[in-house]
Structures are given as structure tokens and as C-alpha cells.
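pls design
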């Protein structure tokens, strides 16, 4: 089982109509505890058509692809805990006109002007984020979320045995400050920490 930490990612796009506000928007991103992992500028009309392929056939599709390729964009892979939902809450509703009434503090209300020119994009779901990041950054590797079974297996194999020993010792010693005592005990008895032994050199 991999012991790596899984951090959720989402795709953000600063659209052509908000590109002049990109510094302010990126400042909001960083202050919201996101890490910017990747950056891409400009899309060709063909790339726009491919990116919005699921909208093909809808009446606004030509306007959407023309708008998105009309000038520079900034595509960003953002990472943090609960990245997808958090970024969606920051940018607000899709229609900027309605957002100005219902969510006046959101980024689309501040920088967007219509349903089409709404300043920003955010992935709708984990699967959408995975697909969109792969489209924008073909060489990126997106770790899948571990299943509940894998998490429970990891805890039972690597965490629970050591923690159980520590709690047992805690009950035996009954220290004045149990939290500090347990923290020290876990540091000293970390199974992943190399053990240093004194070895006498042979004479």
C-alpha cells in the first residue's frame, strides 16, 4: 500500500475577459490555501472545441469556443483539501449576472459580466477534474483516491498496532500530561524511524 498523502486537485481557468485581473485572482487562490501545481496559457480554437466537447450541439457552443480562444487564458491545476468544492464556492454560480444578486462576494460576480463571459472555470466533480487536468496537462499524473477498504487496511497495518501499544503504555504509566507523553512515546517508537544501535568495533 502506498503511504503517500492524497490531495485533491481541480482545474481553474482564468478566462479572456478576466485575464487583466489575473494577479488579484491568483492572490485569492493563494490566500485560500491552494497550491498552484501547473500553469498553461492560451488555447487554440481547436483545443477549445475539444475541451468543451460535451457542450457540442448546444446553441452557445460556437460563441463559447470563439470567446475562449479570443485571447490569453490561464489554466491552473490547484491542490488542497476539498479543492473542487472549495474552488466552486469561491468562484460562485455560472451566471455572473445572477451571481451579482445572490453571491456578490464571489469571483464571478466581481469579474464576470454574463452567463458566457463569467471570468472563471472550475471543475464540476472529481472525474471532471481528472479529465480536464489530463487534457490541459497531458503529462500530469493524478493519483486516484484510495478506497475505504484501502484506508482501513492501511490504518490496521501501519497505524493501529503502534497506537494500541502506545495507549497501553499510557494506561500503565498514567502520566500527568497524557497528550504530551503519548506524542513523545509515538516519536520514540515510530516503526518507520531507523533504529540506531551502538556497535562496538571489533578490536
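designed seq:
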Amino acid at each position: 500500500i502506498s503511504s503517500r498523502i492524497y490531495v485533491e486537485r481541480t482545474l481553474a481557468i482564468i478566462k479572456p475577459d478576466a485575464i487583466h485581473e489575473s494577479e488579484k485572482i491568483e492572490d485569492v487562490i493563494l490566500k485560500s490555501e491552494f497550491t498552484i501545481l501547473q500553469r498553461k496559457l492560451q488555447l487554440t480554437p481547436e483545443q477549445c472545441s475539444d475541451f468543451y466537447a460535451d457542450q457540442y450541439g448546444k446553441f452557445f457552443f460556437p460563441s463559447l469556443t470563439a470567446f475562449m480562444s479570443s485571447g490569453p487564458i490561464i489554466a491552473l491545476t490547484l491542490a488542497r483539501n476539498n479543492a473542487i468544492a472549495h474552488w466552486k464556492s469561491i468562484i460562485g454560480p455560472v451566471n455572473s449576472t445572477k451571481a451579482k444578486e445572490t453571491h456578490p462576494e464571489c469571483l464571478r460576480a466581481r469579474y464576470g459580466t454574463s452567463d458566457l463571459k463569467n471570468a472563471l472555470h472550475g471543475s464540476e466533480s472529481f472525474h471532471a477534474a481528472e479529465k480536464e487536468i489530463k487534457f490541459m496537462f497531458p503529462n500530469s499524473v493524478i493519483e486516484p483516491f484510495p478506497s475505504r477498504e484501502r484506508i482501513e487496511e492501511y490504518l490496521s497495518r501501519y497505524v493501529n498496532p503502534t497506537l494500541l501499544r502506545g495507549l497501553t503504555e499510557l494506561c500503565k504509566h498514567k502520566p500527568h500530561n497524557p497528550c504530551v507523553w503519548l506524542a513523545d512515546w509515538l516519536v520514540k517508537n515510530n516503526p518507520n524511524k531507523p533504529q540506531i544501535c551502538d556497535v562496538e568495533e571489533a578490536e
